[in-house]
Amino acid sequence: MRDRVVERGGNELMTATLGSSALEPGPAVVSTSSPVLGVGVTRFVALVLVLAACLGTARYALVTARHEPHDTLVWRYVALSTAVGGVFSALLLAETTRPAVGTVLVAFRLLSQLFFAVFLALSLRELYYAQPATSTEGTRISLSTARRIETGFMLLALIQFPLVVWLGPTVVAEVIVATAAGAFTVYGVSFGQAIRARRLTHGTVLDATVTYVIAVLICVGTVSVIQGATATSLPAPAIRGAVNVLLVMTGTFLISLIIRLKRSADAASASA
Question: How many CB atoms neighbour CB 251 within 10 A?
Answer without folding.
Answer: 24
